[in-house]
Amino acid sequence: MAKKDAPPRWDRKMQQRLARGEAAALGELYDRFASLVHGLAHTVLGDERAADHLTRDVFAHVWEHPDTYDPKQGPLRSWVATLTHRLAVQRLRATETAALAEAGQGGSTEELERKVRHASVAARADYIVQSMPVPLRAALELAYFQRRDYRQTAADLGVTEDEARRRLRLGLQLLSTAHDAGTAPGAPPGYGGAA
Questions:
Q1: Where would I find the RNA polymerase sigma-70 region domain in this sequence (predicted)?
Q2: C-beta of residue 27 within 8 angstroms of C-beta of residue 102
Q3: pLDDT grade for 72, boundaries at 50, 70 and 90
Q4: How far apart are CA 14 and CA 29, in angstroms?
Q5: What is the pTM of this model?
């Protein structure tokens, strides 16, 4: 069994390949994480075109600075998500500050920070849902999107009612961490919380 603090082999090898300048490695990384990056960027920025640009910027940063990823700090997925969040929040702040200045409303920093906090919590919740195990996500999707109670969820999933309740409770507990103040707002779990 591997040590608990040992990073996954794929993450270490990917970082090494990127550091050597292997274009194929960037392609593999993009194939694996582009939907995550774009989804988080869109959640924070609320704009498809801005999310497209930010996705390009995130992968450009990874290509130019592969050494900034430390496998000992956590999974590559979490690092990429944290990088995306940080760059998206920077872009949101810059865009909103420019819009406030253009409108002559220089004193609305509270509104700006509220918007950034809201976008960060939404991005963190999105990341949590994407990262949770399929059985938990399936139970939450049935309960939320299809308005199923735990009995209907159990029947749909072919599990006991106790198991359905357990999955829903655990999924909701994970989702509730999106508001945790102990980490940076919107920071994905598992990479030190630094945004």
A1: 29-94
A2: no
A3: confident
A4: 8
A5: 0.65
